[in-house]
């Protein structure tokens, strides 16, 4: 496994009232309880959210064990703080407000960005994969852009929001796009060009600092990795590991293509935007936009093609059978958005959605 890049995952979670399901501002209390169990939870922009981060993992089995431990510890800490931990992209219930976490940087973001920040409550999942350097990270980001919509469709987990079906599988991604540096990144020719763009965004006060570069794939500001941020937080640990394995396979394939000088796909911005919107609306069980042929293709077919495209990398990492079986399982069971809708349609009662999301958050299979 020496030549297989390591990976790590960050997951964001919502804290809700165990009875009503309304978001509750208790992230500091939850973090304090988790710290007593040896787990450091990060405080997010709004005080109804926490984030976990795995250590560096070499295999998907290692990653799964870490994610299960972190979710269980965070859920137990939430319970002791009088809250419930949910792996959902957005609150299923009608929130009264999303209070900003009382930290200087977050307060400043709240003041600068107004309702974009105060209507947050958005939970995503970020996968880091080790790369040789920042230029490699930028090159990988360029090559991953056409694959981002299908990864979004796979992980969609925010169909029910404010006690209603949004009509989208990932309403989180629609709301997230309001930030000025969110969504698919532009194509950059080098790390130098990327850094110049970020510098301009900061100097012109479009973003506060480089921590607000929210593009769906980017060179990490803190680690020697490329970071893929396109996903809703998946409903289950199994789906998060599946997503991470696919991302690592895609990164390895992009690195190999770059080393061989393979032609780089450069979808037109309007086509990529269309593919994103279609993925956000239709999700895993829908029909997506095939950017190569600019035709409509079922998302499952697109994902099967992606698996075949990155198969050598998956096999090298020992993940091919896991990914094939994982895709079949999530297609049969449904991803987060599909499970939310199934629960909602029983009685149009958000309590059913909350129960389903709560069970999925700690599901072990």
UniProtKB/TrEMBL annotation:
GO terms for molecular function: ligase activity. Signal peptide: none annotated. Keywords: ATP-binding, Ligase, Nucleotide-binding. It catalyses: L-cysteine + L-glutamate + ATP = gamma-L-glutamyl-L-cysteine + ADP + phosphate + H(+). It is an enzyme of class 6 (ligase). InterPro entries: GCL_type2/YbdK_subfam (IPR050141), GCS2 (IPR006336), Gln_synth/guanido_kin_cat_dom (IPR014746), YbdK (IPR011793). It holds the Pfam family GCS2. Its EC number is 6.3.2.2. Coiled coil: none annotated. Belongs to the glutamate--cysteine ligase type 2 family. YbdK subfamily. HAMAP family: Glu_cys_ligase_2. ATP-dependent carboxylate-amine ligase which exhibits weak glutamate--cysteine ligase activity. PANTHER family: GLUTAMATE--CYSTEINE LIGASE 2-RELATED. This is Putative glutamate--cysteine ligase 2.
């Amino acid at each position: 496994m020496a030549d297989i890049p390591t990976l790590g995952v960050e997951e964001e979670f919502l804290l809700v009232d165990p009875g009503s399901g309304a978001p509750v501002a208790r992230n500091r209390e939850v973090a304090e309880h988790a710290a007593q169990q040896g787990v450091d939870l990060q405080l997010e922009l709004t005080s109804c959210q926490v984030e976990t981060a795995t250590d560096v993992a070499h295999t998907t089995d290692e990653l799964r064990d870490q994610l299960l431990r972190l979710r269980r510890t965070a859920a137990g800490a939430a319970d002791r703080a009088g809250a419930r931990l949910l792996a959902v992209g957005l609150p299923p219930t009608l929130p009264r407000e999303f209070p900003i976490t009382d930290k200087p940087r977050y307060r400043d973001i709240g003041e600068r960005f107004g309702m974009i920040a105060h209507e947050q409550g958005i939970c995503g999942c970020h996968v880091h994969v080790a790369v040789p350097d920042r230029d490699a990270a930028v090159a990988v980001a360029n090559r991953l852009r056409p694959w981002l919509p299908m990864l979004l469709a796979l992980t969609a987990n925010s169909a029910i929001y404010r006690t209603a079906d949004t009509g989208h599988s990932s309403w989180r991604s629609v709301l997230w796009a309001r930030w000025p540096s969110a969504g698919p990144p532009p194509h950059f020719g080098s790390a130098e060009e990327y850094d110049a763009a970020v510098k301009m965004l900061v100097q012109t006060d479009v973003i506060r600092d480089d921590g607000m570069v929210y593009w769906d794939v980017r060179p990490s500001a803190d680690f020697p990795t490329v970071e893929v941020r396109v996903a809703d937080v998946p409903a289950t640990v199994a789906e998060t590991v599946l997503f991470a394995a696919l991302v690592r396979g895609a990164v390895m394939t992009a690195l190999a293509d770059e080393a061989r000088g393979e032609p780089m796909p450069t979808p037109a911005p309007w086509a990529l935007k269309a593919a994103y919107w279609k993925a956000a609306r239709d999700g895993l069980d829908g029909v997506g936009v095939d950017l190569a042929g600019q035709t409509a293709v079922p998302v499952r077919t697109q994902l099967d093609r992606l698996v075949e495209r990155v198969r050598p990398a998956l096999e090298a990492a020992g993940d091919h059978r896991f990914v094939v079986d994982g895709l079949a399982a999530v297609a049969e069971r449904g991803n987060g958005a599909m499970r939310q809708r199934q629960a909602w349609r029983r009685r149009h009662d958000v309590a059913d959605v909350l129960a389903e999301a709560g069970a999925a958050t700690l599901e072990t299979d």
